[in-house]
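stage 2 :: seqdesign
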């Protein structure tokens, strides 16, 4: 099963509080549209495939995607849901890698994630 990226995991490394009670999402994607999917949706899709039995899906690749959105779109949705301002801070790839490492992500994984979105 091929999946798009899930924001729940990345947000823990890319979001930080701002003065005034808002959030900032640090990214290096600019205005690029990314394909997102919720972790629960991945699990539901995988469960449905497994429940269908081996005959239906054996040897097949299933691609799943939720919504295609820019990080500005994501920030707008988060702002509506959370009730606080959420802004996007676009940085260079090296600055993003440093930010993720500073938030506890192992440096090798931070490097690979930056490369994945490059």
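stage 2 :: out
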């Amino acid at each position: 099963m091929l999946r798009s990226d899930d924001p729940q995991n990345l947000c823990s490394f890319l979001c930080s509080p701002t003065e005034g009670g808002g959030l900032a999402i640090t990214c290096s994607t600019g205005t690029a549209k990314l394909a997102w999917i919720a972790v629960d949706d991945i699990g539901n899709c995988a469960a449905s495939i497994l429940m269908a039995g081996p005959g239906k899906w054996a040897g097949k690749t299933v691609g799943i995607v939720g919504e295609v959105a820019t990080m500005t779109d994501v920030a707008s949705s988060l702002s509506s849901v959370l009730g606080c301002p959420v802004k996007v801070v676009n940085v260079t790839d090296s600055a993003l890698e440093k930010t993720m490492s500073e938030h506890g992500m192992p440096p090798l994984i931070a490097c690979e994630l930056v490369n994945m979105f490059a």
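stage 3 :: structure notes
- Residues 39-51 form the longest helix (13 residues).
- The domain at 2-117 is CATH 3.40.50.720 (Rossmann fold).
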